[in-house]
Write a structure and sequence with these properties.
binds magnesium ion; BirA Bifunctional Protein, domain 2; 2 domains; binds adenosine-5'-triphosphate; alpha+beta; elongated; 23% strand; 7-stranded mixed sheet; two-stranded antiparallel ribbon; 35% helix; 276 residues
Length: 276
């Protein structure tokens, strides 16, 4: 006999690891074990939350955003902050129209505007202006919220924090090497080990590279010139990478669900506030 589904949920919420699963001889033995585990977990959560206050910690994603922003700025990337609300036209220019998988995930505000599901459209638009001011290579990044309607829970949030960098005007022959160099530095900075680059060739989009930890995608990279570029009036070589920071926190801290890393009314610093 093992913990009931509700008991398991409760213990996971409190941050208990339930692997390998425990077995009990009777209901009573199981319920006593559950109460003991719950009590111990609440006590350790209380200590963790006191530590959070005492050490003046920030939510992990905020701390990670700050560290990463500092790191990228020290490497010549220019930080930008663009609107959370974007136009339908911007999505269309990303070829996200009625027949695109992402379109059903968009939070529409009205006929013409939505909450951005990604940073790329704004970065295209802004970079075009920046390229008239700055020389090449031009390095730009943004860290900020993106919104997608999602149906699967454990690795997806409806509001998550995307880090997207792009480097314009680098030599064609150096693109992939430079991408890997930056990817490596960034993963080290983000505290991730045991990741791998998964390269794919697509007839339409050319080379794309995902960064995976086990079977979890943490980042997706792409290269230009890209078929979408002409919609934005661009004609340059580029490389870019989009990383989900809550995914990084989930993996780096060994959290069992991404909800503990996201904006929350139940968790603080990844620790459950639900003591009952
Ligand atoms: P997935 O296939 O895992 O849904 P994706 O390929 O649709 O991800 P991208 O558009 O490539 O996601 O976005 C870049 C990164 O943003 C992803 O690698 C992931 O780390 C993160 N990300 C995407 N969607 C979400 C989400 N709903 N919640 C949290 N992070 C996300
Ligand atoms: Mg992807």
């Amino acid at each position: 006999m093992q913990f009931t589904e509700n008991q398991e949920l409760r213990l996971r919420e409190l941050g208990c690891t339930l692997d390998p699963p425990q077995s009990f001889a009777s209901d009573r033995e199981r319920d006593v074990a559950f109460k003991d585990s719950e009590r111990a977990a609440i006590e350790s959560n209380r200590l963790a939350l006191q530590g959070y206050q005492r050490e003046g910690r920030a939510p992990s994603v905020n701390a990670l955003s700050e560290r990463t922003s500092h790191f990228l700025r020290s490497r010549g990337f220019i930080e930008v902050s663009t609107p959370l609300i974007i136009s339908r036209q911007f999505l269309e220019r990303m070829s996200i129209g009625d027949d695109h998988a992402l379109i059903s995930q968009v939070f529409w505000l009205d006929e013409r505007s939505c909450l951005r599901p990604m940073l790329a459209p704004n970065l295209y638009d802004l970079s075009k202006r920046m390229l008239k001011v700055y020389g090449r290579p031009l390095r730009v990044f943004e860290i900020g919220p993106c919104f997608r309607k999602e149906s699967s829970g454990g690795r997806h949030l409806e509001c998550f924090t995307m880090l997207n960098f792009v480097e314009w005007g680098i030599a064609e022959a150096q693109k992939v090497g430079r991408f890997k160099e930056l990817g490596l530095l960034l993963m080290e900075q983000l505290g991730l080990r045991d990741y791998r680059f998964v390269e794919e060739q697509s007839v339409v989009y050319g080379t794309t590279i995902d960064i995976m930890v086990g079977n979890v995608e943490v980042a997706s990279g792409a290269f230009g010139p890209h078929p979408l570029d002409k919609q934005w009036g661009m004609d340059e070589t580029w490389l870019g990478l989009g990383v989900g920071l809550e995914r990084v926190v989930m993996l780096a801290e060994g959290l069992d669900t991404i909800q503990k890393a996201g904006r929350s009314l139940r968790y603080l610093g990844g620790v459950s506030l639900n003591f009952k």
